Amino acid sequence: MSVANRPVHRPLSPHLQVYKPQLTSVLSILHRATGIALSVGVLYLAVWVICAASGARSYEMFQSFNSSIVGRIFLGGWLYCVFYHLFNGIRHLFWDAGYGFELKDAYRSGWLVVVVSLVATAVSWIVGLRLI
Fold first, then answer.
1. Phi-psi region of 10 (alpha: psi -120 to 50; beta: other; left: phi over 0)
2. What predicted TM-score, i.e. pTM, was given to this entire model?
């Protein structure tokens, strides 16, 4: 086989283990993960509605799970995913308009998304508990 006909063994694209995690890459991965979590959460809400339509006994069983610590962690996590995905989507809209590409702006807006999502989750959780 001549040198020109030999297969070239080029390295594949580097995996996540090769790069040092940066805020921008972590937030990008988190945006995708929250999108997946939102899909799972919608299925959870659909089951909730089905249980409500099935009668008082099945709804009470589902509500007892929601009242448990695991259920509350699941619902709180899903609520955080809603807010994170929303606010990070707004951040991406600014990027689409050409704003916020400087590294310091990207980091500032990234941290802002994380903090505002946490605050919005906490506020809505507190308000929701007061309405019960």
1. beta
2. 0.82
Handedness of CA 66, 68, 116, 105 (dihedral sign): negative
**Structural Rg of the chain based on CA atoms:** 22
- The phi, psi pair for 29, rounded to 5°, reads -65, -40
Which residue, chain included where needed, has tokens 């309405």? Answer: 131
Q: Does the structure show a pLDDT above 60 at 1?
A: no
84 neighbors 35 (Cβ within 8 angstroms): no
| Rounded Cα gap, residues 40 and 89, in angstroms | 19
What is the torsion angle, in degrees rounded to the nearest 10, for the CA atoms of residue 113, residue 67, residue 45 and residue 128?
A: -50
